[in-house]
Each structure stands twice: as C-alpha cells, then as structure tokens.
Amino acid sequence: MEEVDRILIHTLRTCGTEVPEDVQSVRQFNTELIVEAVVRCLRVINPSVGASLSHTLPPGMSARFRIGTSLAQACQDLGYSGEIGYQTFLYSSEPDIRALLIFLAEKLPRDSHEDAHQPAGKSTILQRDIGAKIKQQMSLPWVPPLCRTASLQRSQSLYRLHCFHSQPLSLAGDSSMKSVPAERQEYWAKYLPFVTAQLPHVSSVAASLLERNTAEISAVQEWEAEWKSQGLASRLPPEDYRSKKRQRLQKRIQDQLRKYSQLLTENQIPTSSSQDLLDVLRAFNMEGAADQHKGSRFTHAQKFTHQQDPQKLREQMQRATEVLPKKDTQDEDAEQRELTSLQQQIDVMEKEIQELTESTKLLQLTLTQAGGEAGEMHQQCEEKEKVVRVKKRAVELLPDAENNLTKLQALVDSSALRMVNLVGQWETHRVRLLEEYRALRKAHQEQEDESSRWMKEAKDLYDKIRGAADEAKRKEELYKQLMSEYESLPKEVSRAAYTQRILEIVSNIKKQKEEITKILSDTKDLQKEINSLTGKVDRTFVVTDELVFKDAKKDEPVRKAYKYLAALHENCSQLIQTIEDTGTILREIRDLEEQIETETAKKTLSNLQKILEDYKAIKQENAILLGRVKEA
Fold first, then answer.
1. CB of 26 within 8 A of CB of 8?
2. Rg (CA), the chain
3. Which residue of 322, 346, 360, 509 has the fewest CB atoms within a 10 Å radius of its CB?
C-alpha cells in the first residue's frame, strides 16, 4: 500500500493539489486535503463540473454538508459504484478514500494530468505560461495609483491597453518560387521595410499580424474545401482548375461590363464613367465592346445635331463677344439686344431640333415596322412562287397525261424499289451501328465506373493523407511538448534510480510470489500427508479391532485390552478434533485482528468524536439563527 499511496500522492500533486511533504500515506489525509484532492481531480476530468465546486471547506456545517453531497453526486455521475455520501468526505475512512482516489486517478486523461482540455503543442506551453503570469500578477496585492512603484505602474496601470486595430501589411514571399520576378525578389531583400516600420503605431503590429495570419489560414482552408468538393470532381490538375476558374471569373466580369456599356450606349450618357469603362474593356481585350460605343452614322448625326450644334453656337457667341471692341453705352445696349435675339433664335432652334429628334425616332420605329412587314410579304411571295411553279409544271404535263402518268408510275415504282433497297441497307447498317453503339456505351459505362472508382479511391487516399498529416502534426506537437516538459524537469534526478527502484519492486513481487507458491505447495503436501495418515490410522484401527475382537471372546485380558483400544481410539479422535478446533480458532482470531485493524483504519472513534463536535456546532448555529429570527 505504501507504493500505491506514493503514486496517488504524486498524481494528486500533478493535478494541482497542495499535498504537504510530510504526508506520505492516505492515512494521513485530513478532511480539507481530501476535499481539495477530489475537487482538483474533478476539475481536470470535467472542468464544467469542477468549476462550480470549491476546494476549500467553509466554516459552517450546513455548507460543509452541501459540499460533501455535491462531491458525492459528482463522483456518482462519473461512474463510481462504491458507497459514497457526504460522510465519505467529512468522516472519512482510509479504505474508502483510497478506493475513491484510485477511481479518480484512473479517470484522469492519459496525455496530461495538469490540464486535459487544453490542446497539445505550442498552445499548451503558451497557455501555461500565460496562466502562470496571470497567477503571479493576481497574487500581488492591489495598490492605489499614487502609491505604486515603477514595476507596479507597468503591471497594474491601464496605459498599456490598446484597441484591436489592424492594417494591411506588405510581407515578403518565398524567394525560391520560380514565378517571382528578380526585381521583386530584390525589392523584398533590400527595400521592403520591416513590419514595425510599415505601421504608424506599434500597438497595431500584433493585431495586423493576427489578422493577416487568420486571412491566410482561411484562404488555405477554403481552397482545400473547394478542391475536395469541386476540384476532384472536375478531374483536372490544380493549376488547370485555377486557370479555368480564373477564365470563368473574367468571362463573368466581361459580360457585366458589356451589359453596362450597352446600357450607356442606349441611354446616350456621355460621362467620365463610360470612358473609364472603355479603358477597362480595352484592358480585358474587348475591342468589340468598345466598338459598340462608336454607333451608326445616324447616331453620330443625331448626337452632333442634338449636342454639338448648340455648343458651337454658344462658342461662336463667346468669340463674338470677345472680338467685339469696347463701345459706349449705346453700342452695349445694341449688343445686348442682338445677344437676346440670338439667344431666342438658339432656343427656337433647340426646340426644332428636339421636335426633329422625336419625329426621327418615330420615323425610325415606323421604318422598322415597315421592314418587318416587307420581310413577311417577301416570305409570302416566295411561298406563292413555289406553288405557282408546281402548278405550272402540272399544267405543262396535262396535254400528254397518259404517257406522263405511266412515266410517273414507273418513277414511283422505281423510287419504291430503291426505298426498299435503301431500307434493307439501312437495316444492315443499323444493326451494325447498334452493336457498335451498345459496345461503346458499355465501354463508356465501364470507363465511368472505373473513373468513379478511381475518384473514390483518390478521395479516400486524400482523406488518409490528410489524417496522416494531422496525426503527424499532432505527434510532432506532442513530441515538442514532451521535450519541453523533459527539459523543465530537474536534471539532478537520475533515471537509473527510478529504474533500479522499479526492478527492486518487481524482484520483491517475484520473491513474494515464489514464497506464496512454496507455501501453497507445502500446504498441499501437508494436507496429502494428513489425509494419508488419517486413512492409515483408520485402517489400522479397523484391522486391530477385528483381531482383538476375535481373541476377546475367548480370553479375559484380551477383552480388557480391547476396551483400552477403543478408549485410546476415542481419545485420539478427540485430540485430533481439538487440534482442528484450535486451528479454526486461530484463523478466526487472525480474521478478527484484521477486522480490528480495518475498523481502526476507519477512525470510528475519531469520526464519532467529530460527529459529536459537528452536532454541537449545528446546535449552536441553530440557536444563533433562532435568536436572529426572534430579534427580527
């Protein structure tokens, strides 16, 4: 039990339980230490349950009973099948506590007894360091701002807190990539500023790096999900799939730009955005879309009449006003009257141009309708011409109708024979083509099945590769974590000492097993010897009894000897029974001694004393509460 208790104490210490150094056995655990150990183990096994439990006992007895009941219920929820209740923690016994602690130690996660819900790897070490730092800062007492020293100003003031504000960064790529130009690589190597120099505030560095890293990880995950769902189904290499996707995107952009350019052309809106759109279309190699903006001659004439003539008139008027020399007031009035008349003429011309534009649109619509009607009439004329040609040929054949009918009948018969011949040939070709079609369809179906099978195998292989990569990554992180824990362990402890101790324990177990086997074999031999001696004694007595009984009928001394023989046999039987009863009593004594030791380990007297003390404390609490109620 000593080795078991040492292992349990070591496990409890790794869970965070502060077990004193002088405690070497479960027998030395008090109530406070038992409650703390159980709560620490529950927090590691199930943090959601352990977080609501306190590892310290309150002074009130009712609160202690509630904590003991909560701990018992939590252990039962984990699957503990032994008898457990609040008395297990408040009035503990050594066997029950040892069994409970062994159960909790077996329930602890195998990878990490310290914090099982934390991920393995660098994040575990980082979170552990953060927790240690926070715990260290929380252990420091709070000091008012005016009384803080320089170190406390750094740790307890809020001037180092900043908002999460990120900005775009320019980072260097992989210089080993072949598609990167040499100029860009030279820029990355010589002229690209550091990340801290790219941002106006140093406080934005962490936020910018975190957002950049998150964006890259999200892009990689989205590409993997798209490739797994759509890329593999397209049966294309990744480069071809990306190229095809880029072409589809460019085509959609071009279609949208063409649509917008057509709207601009139809609405005749000459804005700067249309010129920008033309430039974009030229950049996409869309000369056709740019040509759509050229329009027809009628459109140019309409725009020239509607937009450019009034402008030219105004420009001419401005030039005329600039060229005219300065005159006196009368000349200025004449010029003003002339300008007014010219402006009226311009307004009249604009109104006429607008009316002509509307009439032009109406005429163009009428022309379109007339063109449609002309096309329909032309089609009707062609159909009527075909009918006339057929009737004309029929009229030409009427004078010699009998010969023509004979020739027509012969032509129909020959056409029928040729049709029958063609049908036979077609049937021959059709059978052969159907066989080829079925063979090709079967081959195509087999090829599709084979392709589907290969596709499924490729997906399975991809999943296996992904799983193997995740497993390798997890094992690598676990290896790094174990290496860091190994480096943090004290170096003065020799592994050979633990190995030697384990070997000694194994050798002791082997010796005990050999001794037990030897005792069992000796017991079996002794039992066999006792059984053989008992049978020999019984047989000897039977033979002797028969011989002496025959002579006892004839001789008186022999009759007395027979009586003494019967008395001797009875006394020997009583002696053997007495020895057996003595052995049974000795075994019962040993069992009772073990029971006494077990009851002593249960601390019955001390628990009774604790129960009496708790009962007195509860009576005092009840009296205090009754006094408060009466006062209220």
1. yes
2. 55
3. 322
Tokens of 70: 């909560």
Q: Round to whole Å and give the CA distance between 188 and 428.
A: 74
**Residue 272 confidence (pLDDT):** 52
CA 392 to chain centroid = 85
Q: What distance in Å separates the CA atoms of residue 333 and residue 327, rounded to the nearest whole number?
A: 10
Report DSSP state, residue 120. S
Longest Cα–Cα distance in the chain: 197
The pair of three-digit structure tokens given for residue 440, joined into one six-digit string: 């090709």
d(C-alpha 564, C-alpha 550), whole Å: 15
Say what the pLDDT of residue 307 is: 42
Residues 6+ apart with CB under 8 A from 92: 29, 31, 34, 603, 607
Q: What is the mean pLDDT of each run of 10 residues along the chain (632 residues)?
A: 77 82 83 87 81 77 82 86 82 82 82 41 68 75 74 64 80 65 84 85 85 89 84 79 86 79 61 56 49 41 42 50 48 74 82 84 84 87 87 76 80 88 88 90 88 85 88 88 74 65 84 91 89 85 82 77 83 87 90 81 73 82 84 78
Q: How far apart are CA 246 and CA 252, in angstroms?
A: 10
In which residue are the tokens 């081959």 written? 443
Cα–Cα dist 496/164, whole Å: 52
Q: Hey, what amino acid is at 147?
A: C
What is the reported pLDDT for 330? 61
Report yes or no: 484 and 114 within 8 Å, Cβ to Cβ: no
Q: What are the residue ranges spanned by the domains of the chain?
A: 2-141, 310-388, 399-489, 519-601
Rounded to an integer, what distance in angstroms lies between the CA atom of residue 97 and that of residue 84? 10
Contact 137, 44 (CB under 8 A): no
pLDDT attached to residue 120 = 44
Kindly tell me the burial class for residue 49, based on how many C-beta atoms sit within 10 Å of its own C-beta (0-12, 13-18, 19 or more). Answer: middle
C-alpha triplet 31, 32, 38: angle, nearest 5°: 90
Contacts of 83 (CB under 8 A, 6+ apart): 96
Question: Of 102, 103, 121, which is closest to residue 112 (Cα–Cα)?
Answer: 121
Q: Rounded to an integer, what distance in angstroms lies between the CA atom of residue 68 and that of residue 76? A: 12
What CA–CA distance (Å, rounded) separates 11 from 98?
A: 13
pTM of the model: 0.33
Contacts of residue 455, defined as CB under 8 A and 6 or more positions apart, other chains included, come to 232, 233, 235
Q: Which own/partner contact pairs does 452-455 have at CB distance under 8 Å and 24+ positions apart?
A: 455/232, 455/233, 455/235
Q: How far is 375 from 123, CA to CA, in rounded Å? A: 79
Task: Give the CA count within 13 Å in the CB-facing half-sphere of 271.
Answer: 8
Give the separation between CA 103 and CA 106, rounded to whole angstroms.
5
**Phi–psi pair at 623, nearest 5 degrees:** -65, -40
The pLDDT assigned to 295 comes to 42
Contacts of 68 (CB under 8 A, 6+ apart): 35, 85, 86, 87, 88, 89, 90
Would you say 15 and 40 are in contact if contact means Cβ atoms under 8 Å apart? Answer: yes
Q: Are 34 and 603 in contact (CB under 8 A)?
A: no
Residue that has been written with the tokens 């163009």 in this structure:
364
- Listed in sequence order, the residues at least 6 apart from 610 whose beta carbon sits closer than 8 Å to its beta carbon are 90, 91
**pLDDT of res. 301:** 39
